[in-house]
Write a structure and sequence with these properties.
Helix content is about 40%, strand content about 20%. The chain is built from 16 helices and 17 strands. The strands form 3 sheets. The protein has a 7-stranded mixed sheet with strand order 9-8-7-14-15-17-16, sandwiched between helices. The two termini are about 30 Å apart.
Length: about 350
């Protein structure tokens, strides 16, 4: 049962860390650990130190902390609470985290991937009516269970909620049946990997593909990887609600995003790119601009009700707001949510198939 009382009863990860009597160590270095330390400072949470995997420890320091191995941290403090400061889908690293959890309490606070707003239990409870509406949209029991346990993870930072909803990526594709006549729009095409997946799934047959990628180096790789295929149009642009210019930052990795400190890039709406032409399938993975990209697709979605795959993890409440927005544009969709094997709750996706 998806109830407000249940979520109210859960202790938030931040509240847990505030009252934790054991030394708190962050596992990992980099951007995630930077964000955690900033939040620790804001909330008055004491950090006892930083540890990293043995093969990464070279006597370095991080934000004034000497980076140690887990064994050294254990020698120093004995029992501790571990806060995960990075994301991974590598099985061996996930297994390492599971093994740490057998010896120590592990907490993984929900940190923003894009923007600067972290998940808040209080804010979730304030928007519970919208959350309940989104929950009721989902078409199968696994989706409802995933939505509920994902919320519990976001509140508590406890990994066992995630482990209960992991789904193999191959099984996710079964939700979206693809034909040899697809017109596919890939918003956030990266280096062409998801276009290649579609071409593989359809046996190399399709009607038309539109590949949209804002980061210049990624776009060049996308061109090189896909140039041999026919009927693909390439757009070196960010997917957005209107045609404009935006500042874009983040380098050539998957974390490129709209950012006021970035360089100017062209932005296009899908409605503008298609100019009324049909579309049968759209993928949205645009690092926090997913709602804006959906707004730029409203005419296409309303008119053609294409199949949709949309990332839900870039902003803390996307898993609530994006299904509701799509439903407001076009009734008759069946909604599904699936969580890939990933620590923390990244790589969860929304799948929409219209009941035509």
């Amino acid at each position: 049962m998806f109830s407000k009382e249940y979520f109210q009863s859960l202790e938030s990860s931040w509240d847990r860390l505030k009252v934790c009597e054991k030394p708190v160590f962050i596992y990992g270095m980099g951007d995630g650990a930077q964000k955690l330390l900033d939040e620790f400072d804001r909330l008055g949470i004491s950090c006892a130190g930083i540890f990293a995997s043995d093969d990464f420890v070279r006597g370095q320091s991080f934000r004034g902390y000497k980076v140690v191995t887990l064994a050294q941290a254990e020698d120093q403090c004995g029992d501790m609470t571990v806060v995960l400061g990075f994301g991974t889908s590598l099985p061996e690293i996930m297994e390492r985290i599971d093994n740490i959890e057998k010896r120590h309490e592990v907490i993984v606070p929900e940190m923003c991937v894009a923007g600067d707003e972290n998940f808040s239990k209080d804010k979730f409870l304030s928007m519970f009516t919208e959350a309940e509406k989104a929950y009721k949209l989902f078409s199968d029991e696994l989706s409802k269970q995933t939505f509920e346990k994902l919320t519990a993870f976001k509140i508590t930072g406890k990994l066992f909620y995630l482990r209960g909803i992991f789904t193999d990526k191959d099984k996710m594709t079964e939700i979206l049946p693809l034909s040899e006549t697809e017109t596919y729009c890939d918003l956030g095409a990266y280096t062409g990997d998801t276009v290649s997946e579609l071409i593989s799934r359809t046996g190399g047959k399709y009607e038309k593909i539109y590949a949209v990628e804002p980061e210049r180096k990624n776009f060049q790789k996308c061109l090189r990887n896909l140039i041999a295929y026919d009927d693909i149009s390439f757009y070196n642009a960010a997917a957005w609600s209107v045609d404009t210019e935006l500042n874009f930052a983040g380098g050539a990795g998957r974390q490129g995003r709209v950012d006021a400190a970035g360089k100017k890039v062209r932005a296009r709406s899908l409605d503008s790119i298609l100019a009324g032409k049909k579309c049968t399938y759209v993928k949205y993975d645009v690092e926090g601009a997913d709602l804006e990209a959906l707004k730029g697709s409203r005419n296409t979605i309303s008119r053609y009700s294409p199949k949709i795959c949309c990332a839900l993890y870039h902003r803390p409440y996307d898993y609530i707001t994006l299904p509701l927005y799509i439903n407001s544009l076009c009734k008759g969709y069946k909604f599904y949510i699936r969580q890939e094997k990933y620590y923390p709750a990244w790589e969860n996706n929304l799948f929409c198939v219209h009941d035509k």
